[in-house]
Structure formats: structure tokens, C-alpha cells
Amino acid sequence: MASPAPTPRPGDQLASATGTTRVIVIRAPQMADGPIECGGSPMVPAAQAPAPAPAGDAPGALIGKRYVDAADTLELLCTASGSGPLTYAGQPLTIKAPKALPASD
Questions:
Q1: Cα distance from N-terminal residue to C-terminal residue, the chain
Q2: Residue 54: which pLDDT band, with cuts at 50, 70 and 90?
Q3: Fewest beta carbons within 10 Å, which of 42, 43, 55, 68?
Q4: Quick check: 86 pLDDT over 70?
Q5: Which of 67, 68, 60 is nearest to 18 (CA)?
Q6: Contact residues for 57 (Cβ-Cβ < 8 A; gap 6+)
Q7: CA 101, 25, 70, 30 torsion: positive or negative?
Q8: Residues 4-51: pLDDT tens digits?
Q9: DSSP string over 4-67
Q10: pLDDT for 84 beyond 80
Q11: Domain boundaries, given as residue ranges, for the chain
């Protein structure tokens, strides 16, 4: 199994080592505080990902949703849904709320 990238960079494509989840890094901190994980396993570069395992029953990432950490320093875009929660440095990532559009009068 390939080791994950030590510091994620915008544009990196990551895949779950144990499931079907795939993400693209939209925004990343200057220095990584820990690994990006899916279902408790570190994510690996998508080009080096093993064949996806069947999805389980655990709630996981949803395709098309953006996920952010509590400090809003890391943002991921889910490109393939799968089982297992997304975490960064041991903390769960949450779905980013959509921006409100300005009202037109």
C-alpha cells in the first residue's frame, strides 16, 4: 500500500484505501496537522489507490459536497461517494454550508 502525501496541496486527488470515496483538495493548510483519513485509514493519492472495496453501511462522504475542518483551513470536494467518515488530524470534517446569494431587488 502506498503512503499518503505528507502535506496536501490544492488540486491533489485522494482516494480511500479501504472504500470507494475519492476527493480533490480545494484548500489546504501550509503545514499538515495530521493525515486526511476516510473510515479510519489514511487516504492515498488516487493514482496509487487500490481497487475499491464494496461500500459498507456506515455513513460516509456524499458526492458533490464540500467538506471542511473546524478551523476552515482544509476543504475537500467529494468526487466519488463511499462509506466511512472523512477526518483530518483525528477530527471529523463537516459539510460546508452553501453561500447565500445576494438578493436581487
A1: 56
A2: low
A3: 55
A4: yes
A5: 60
A6: 83
A7: negative
A8: 446 889 999 999 988 889 999 999 988 888 899 998 899 999 888 776
A9: PPSS--TT-EEE-SSSS-EEEEEE--SS--S-EEETTEE-EEGGGPPPPPPP-SS----TT-EE
A10: yes
A11: 13-95
User: Which DSSP helix (H) or strand (E) runs through 94?
Assistant: strand 94-95
- Cell triple for 30: 501550509
Q: Read off the C-alpha cell for 1.
A: 500500500
52: its cell numbers: 475499491
Cell of 25: 483538495
The C-alpha cell at 83 is 462509506
C-alpha cell read off for 84: 466511512
